[in-house]
Amino acid sequence: MARKEVQGKRLFVLDTNVLMHDPTALFRFHEHDIFLPMVVLEELDAGKKGLSEVARNVRQVSRFLDDLVSGRGPKEIEKGLPLQEQRPDLDGKSEQPKTSGRLFFQTRSLEAELPDALPGNRPDNNILGTALALQNTHPDKAITLVSKDINLRIKATAIGIHAEDYFNDQVLDDVNLLYSGTYELPGDFWEQHSKDMESWQENGHNFYRLAGPLVSQWHPNQCLHLPGDSGFEALVRSVRNDTAELQVAIDYRSSIHTVWGINARNLEQNFALNLLMDPEVDFVSLMGQAGTGKTLLTLAAGLAQTLEENRYKEIIMTRVTVPVGEDIGFLPGTEEEKMTPWMGALMDNLEVLTKTDIGGDWGRAATNDLLANRIKIRSLNFMRGRTFLNKFLIIDEAQNLTAKQMKTLITRAGPGTKVVCLGNVAQIDTPYLTETSSGLTYVVDRFQHWEHSGHIILRRGERSRLADFASEAL
Hints:
Elements (H helix, E strand, L loop, with lengths): L9 E5 L1 H6 L11 E4 L1 H9 L6 H17 L4 H6 L1 E2 L19 E4 L17 H15 L4 E5 L3 H9 L3 E3 L17 E3 L4 H5 L4 E5 L2 E7 L11 E3 L7 E8 L2 E6 L18 H10 L6 E6 L5 H15 L5 E6 L15 H5 L4 H10 L6 H15 E3 L13 E6 L6 H8 L7 E6 L15 H9 L5 E6 L6 H9 L1
Parallel strand pairs: 1-2, 1-5, 2-4, 5-6, 7-10, 13-17, 13-18, 14-15, 14-16, 16-17
Antiparallel strand pairs: 3-4, 8-9, 9-12, 10-11, 11-12
Helix pairs in contact: 8-9, 9-11, 13-14
């Protein structure tokens, strides 16, 4: 919805792409009214065919509209249809809004003079003409055109129509406000929190139970560390009644603790391995720029727990297939063979993880065959309806997924399954998705308070000095 504050009741004219992007946009404007130009209904009708996400959204919009107009006469439609009566449970809550706007359809031709350079036979210009006519016929209301199309908003502003982007799908106002997963403790932390502190050992881990002013700011499985060389690194295990339980983190930078031959190289990587190797953490999200080690750490943790500890039956890796350049067309073969060109990151990291001099070429070939039987590559297109039992599920390039797609994937997890989402919100290739509306941003924000999830932003590149410089300079 719009961010800019305008006094009084407003009338929002919705562009087609808003409804294609979010079918529930009809019910997101609270007490304000919505107007749908007839050309929008025509474009929705043209976009309903197919199996794409957009086509599914259009069909859902059509179902919403059908429920709204069902049993209504022309006079009722002319007066506007109350949206509260058919409002779905958008946020998982049973409470309905106390006030609700009305939905108006364009039932007659609206005359408005467009500039000569904007003939009215194009759908976008038709919408602009409708918005101009509404300004003339409803001077008591603030008319706002809502569109995801930047060029349409520019044209609207140029001819005197107030236009705004659709912001309701955005998780945060600024991606810099996103939960980082780490917290740097002040130098006087122990002085403020050591009173009535308890400490004990359990299953080889050190635990602390303490209270203090900072406890209320922590989240479950958040990673705490003291600045400097003090060496204190811990994970928040629970926060209850102003009391927190901390577990001292395992130091995976030490040669004593390796994960499939891999050691952490910095603070964030160490915390990431602690979360990836913890059986009590069912969902882990790792964000970071290219070369920070997201895929390598995740694969190492997955192989160690699948082949060494037998905690999971197999590793399943998937990603959204959005090309960076021109699409290369259809690919031959089975599902796994079609996905292979998209899994270059998997192959590159497996080459690092399986590099060994033992057994020579024969030994490496045997290792690769073993891993091929335990690592499965799957397409997102066939995920709906599946249930994964005791699997280590890796979702790569998760920043290109919408919130709805992310929900579909994560809800595939059955008992004993761990889900790991990897991505970089600075590299989004999906149209209409931004850093603040990406499905990856969505799950990080929604899972931060759950005691069986963890999140880390990897900030330091470890790929090469060339990659590090390119990430900063280009």
